[in-house]
Design goal:
single chain, mainly alpha, Four Helix Bundle (Hemerythrin (Met), subunit A), about 70% helix, Armadillo, Insc_C
Length: about 525
């Protein structure tokens, strides 16, 4: 048969394309049907996990991680089925895992050229052990002798454990290898067009969890990224680079690397350089917020932070003042809030910079302070500053008591659990701030005039108003008692007898057991 030349080309292109795709497209379920007989009649087939390899729409790292997740999940499910002695399902799932493992290794081998000898060794060990596992389970479905099955069960469990170990070690080697390749690209390239996708891929890796962040940090990721942040030719990549650094610095290894390369000094330079974009400043603030997080237990070694703290705090206050969006304000204020936990000297610097007025003013702009998360940061700063006697007059001048009262009414509009938790923190911290500031008679008078006492009583007596939060209840009881000292006549006798006069713990127990009245 003679084909026109153009048709011949089309035909050849299609076949060639099919041959190339075939290497990457292994349908595991078809292989299961061919190898696992008889086909299970149990009803949990709909729970099977599927993955189609489409390299054109998913890079090799994401493909690998998806395949690894499926294998890990299947191994867990095999162990569960094994406990229930469901041998037919154990065997069919074992065949499927075998297929997934081979597919993963073939896919990765076709997409990488310079894998290590150690990696090849683990690939062979894993494939051999999976074959052995499949043979074991096949023998199990061919016998009904309970004694034989019981004796084989321990061997199968041991093999399953070994497979999980080999698999974990192989994935560790592969991810380390990929991180090394990306970092090599970043370190050796002087082209934005090569460096940008490498940083993007590295950021994607950091989103896969703390373990990958540790691998990247150990392989020199923090060093390589700060090197980018010190080169003017890569200025357009600073936001993306800083975002990746913030992710890596969630782990202790990342923090140690940051300290070694004078990362704090680099961040201070970026924040104080007015020629950088707002986006760059915001991402630098995000790194500061991450490394000063009060939830981390490994910030004590950041000695260089104290040396640069005044410059950093000044730049962050300016960023709050000039913020063009809620996101920028949130990042800058979160960094400031964390710093006020990190060192008390920060609160004194904030007072000198007139930060109270700036933050209170921002709260009146709904385009800037637009979520409970932002208000949480502001009230955190106010609560930490309120330990200083000078802060009371600043807060009164900025109409801060009115803002604190408004924050006592904070409620979630979406019902989202994270937002609800943020609203609880806002209520709690506003009550704490009121309690601390009310040692100043002027603040207490202002709070009483603005009717803070009725709202505090409502929060104590109504669990739904405080979303059943015990921390909000304790803070409100303390604030109420502080105000009651200044103005006992502002409370009804029953409120005084139940919420103020008893020990704090007794009032707390009374309120937590209180039935709401809907009359």
């Amino acid at each position: 048969l003679s084909l026109p030349f153009s048709m011949h080309l089309i035909q050849m292109d299609s076949v060639q394309r099919w041959m190339e795709d075939l290497k990457l497209m292994t349908d595991c379920e078809c292989m299961c049907i061919l190898q696992s007989k008889p086909i299970s009649i149990e009803k949990d087939e709909e729970n099977e996990l599927h993955l189609t390899s489409q390299y054109s729409t998913c890079d090799n790292l994401q493909l690998l991680l998806k395949r690894a997740w499926i294998i890990s999940t299947e191994l867990t499910r095999i162990a569960q089925k094994l406990e229930k002695n469901r041998w037919q399902r154990v065997h069919s799932m074992t065949v499927r895992v075998n297929c997934h493992v081979r597919s993963m290794i073939n896919e990765y081998s076709s997409l990488t050229r310079n894998s290590s000898e150690e990696m090849h060794q683990y690939e062979k060990l894993l494939i051999d052990k999976c074959s052995e596992f499949t043979a074991f389970t096949e023998r199990c479905i061919q016998t009904e002798d309970e004694h034989i099955l019981k004796s084989m069960k321990s061997c199968i469990n041991e093999t399953l454990t070994t497979i999980a170990q080999y698999f974990g070690q192989l994935i560790e080697l592969v991810l380390t290898h990929e991180a090394q390749n990306l970092l090599r690209q970043i370190e050796l390239s002087d082209s934005v067009y090569i460096t940008e996708p490498a940083i993007s891929s590295l950021f994607s890796l950091t989103q896969e969890g703390a373990h990958l962040c540790r691998i990247i940090a150990k392989e020199g990721g923090v060093v390589a990224l700060f090197k980018i942040c010190r080169q003017d030719c890569f200025r357009c990549l600073y936001p993306q680079t800083l975002r990746t650094l913030a992710s890596i610095c969630c782990v202790e290894e990342g923090m140690h690397q940051l300290e070694k390369v004078d990362g704090i000094l680099c961040l201070a330079d970026i924040l104080t350089d007015n020629t950088h974009s707002e986006a760059t400043h915001a991402e630098a603030a995000a790194v500061i917020a991450q490394i000063t997080s009060p939830h981390l237990t490994f910030t004590q070694h950041l000695s260089s932070f104290l040396e640069n703290m005044e410059e950093i705090v000044t730049a962050l206050v300016k960023l709050c003042q000039d913020a063009s969006s809620g996101e920028v304000f949130l990042l800058a204020s979160a960094a400031l809030a964390n710093i006020t936990f990190f060192d008390t000297m920060a609160c004194e610097i904030l007072l000198q910079l007139n930060a109270t007025k700036i933050l209170l003013s921002a709260c009146s702009d709904r385009h800037v302070v637009d979520t409970p998360y932002s208000r949480d940061q502001v009230v955190t700063i106010l609560a930490n500053m309120s330990v200083l006697d000078q802060s009371a007059s600043e807060i009164i001048r900025g109409n801060g008591v009115q803002l604190l009262l408004e924050m006592l009414f904070e409620r979630s509009s979406s019902g989202n659990s994270a937002e609800v938790a943020a609203c609880e923190r806002v209520q709690q911290k506003s009550a704490v701030t009121l309690a601390r500031l009310s040692r100043d008679p002027e603040v207490a008078d202002e709070a009483i005039k603005l009717s803070c006492i009725p709202r505090l009583i409502k929060l104590c007596r109504s669990p739904t108003e405080r979303n059943n939060s015990d921390s909000v209840l304790v803070a409100c009881l303390v604030a109420l008692r502080r105000l009651a000292v200044m103005s006992p006549d502002a409370l009804e006798e029953s409120d005084f007898q139940q919420l103020v006069k008893p020990r704090l713990v007794d009032s707390f127990l009374l309120c937590t057991n209180m039935e709401e009245s809907f009359v």
